[in-house]
Design brief:
This is Stage II sporulation protein M. The protein is about 85% helix and about 0% strand. The chain has about 350 residues and is mainly α. The longest helix has about 45 residues.
């Protein structure tokens, strides 16, 4: 290989790559056009090959060092820049994409919420009237603790907060994933989990109310329940969506219906995981903490729930405003056409 001729032939490519890298490092990859990004990747590969050839033929320490710097900078922009873009997409999803999916699937979430709340109401009613019904739903040790000792069981969670918090997170995630997967059983599994948990919370609500412990009990539930319960309802709605695709695919083939609903279910699953992790941390460290007054726990839970609502509603309000604006514009145009 004639070294001087090889350097003269390859040097313009090195300079082009250096110029592209200078701009990408200064202004970001978004400053490059699609063609320039393609050229950047292609030049990076060719310069990497040049570096290997320069080392093999002992072109010179200066050339090798310069090529080494170019390839290192190219690697950082291409691969680390891609990672930054991926994290940016994740951030965008949690910033607005998840809220969009929740709005699109709100009917299913509300249906799951209704199933849960009706089950809780039925359990509360029967447990209030019949102690035998209460014993069918609530574990006996909890009944004895509340009824005989006049105590709640939540304070015991504080003994090992990190371990308990981890267990709570794992359990909550498991409940939600089973709710979603239950849709594959024609929705029977999803409905069972919603009804079972609704009956349990309703019966316990009656038990603590009968023994004048409702205020501290709901003080415990409010902080983490503000995220945990909506996550269960959202997961239940996703399971019902799967059941709909299976049982009532409308005008679609079942496979096509799954292709339509499947991505939304996947986005819901991905989106609700942080909700459950945060709820588990709150349930392990804040909800059972006797140093925090119950009244403050109510406030914390209320603020968290309003934050969740605010996460969704502003986007929804903006969407409604945009729709209204388009409707007014269409009517104005129609009136203008009629007058002309």
């Amino acid at each position: 290989m004639h070294i001087q001729r090889w350097i003269a032939r390859r040097e313009p490519h090195w300079k082009t790559l250096e110029l592209l890298l200078d701009r990408a490092e200064r202004l970001g990859l978004k400053s490059l056009s699609a063609t320039e990004i393609h050229d950047l990747a292609s030049l990076y590969r060719s310069v990497s090959a040049d570096l290997a050839r320069a080392r093999t033929h002992q072109v010179g320490a200066v050339i090798v060092q310069d090529l080494q710097k170019l390839t290192s900078r190219g690697y950082a922009q291409i691969y680390q820049g891609t990672r930054r873009q991926e994290w940016h997409k994740v951030w965008e999803f949690y910033q607005s994409g998840f809220a969009q999916v929740l709005r699109e699937t709100l009917v299913y979430t509300m249906l799951a919420t209704t199933i849960f709340c009706l089950s809780a109401l039925v359990a509360w009613w029967f447990a209030w009237l019949d102690p035998n019904f209460l014993e069918l739903i609530v574990p006996e040790r909890l009944i004895q603790l509340v009824r005989d000792d006049g105590e709640l069981w939540m304070g015991r969670i504080m003994g090992d907060s990190p371990g308990n918090s981890s267990d709570i997170m794992t359990n909550n995630i498991g409940v939600c994933l089973r709710s979603i997967a239950g849709g594959l059983l024609a929705g029977i599994g999803t409905v069972y989990i919603l009804v079972f948990n609704g009956l349990l919370i309703g019966a316990i609500a009656a038990l603590v109310a009968q023994n004048n412990l409702a205020f501290p009990f709901w003080g415990f539930v409010f902080p983490h329940g503000a995220l945990e319960l909506p996550a269960i309802f959202i997961a239940g709605g996703a399971g019902l969506m799967i059941a709909k695709a299976l049982l009532f695919p409308d005008n679609y083939r079942r496979l096509d219906a799954f292709k339509i609903y499947g991505p939304k279910v996947a986005q819901i699953t991905f989106g609700m995981i942080p909700m459950l992790l945060i709820a588990g941390g709150i349930e392990g460290f804040i909800s059972p903490n006797p140093a925090i007054p119950d009244s403050l726990k109510y406030i914390i839970g209320t603020v968290i729930f309003l934050g969740l609502v605010a996460y969704i509603l502003p986007h929804s309000a903006a969407l409604q405003a945009q729709t209204l604006k388009q409707l007014v514009k269409r009517r104005f145009n129609s009136a203008e056409d009629a007058s002309s």
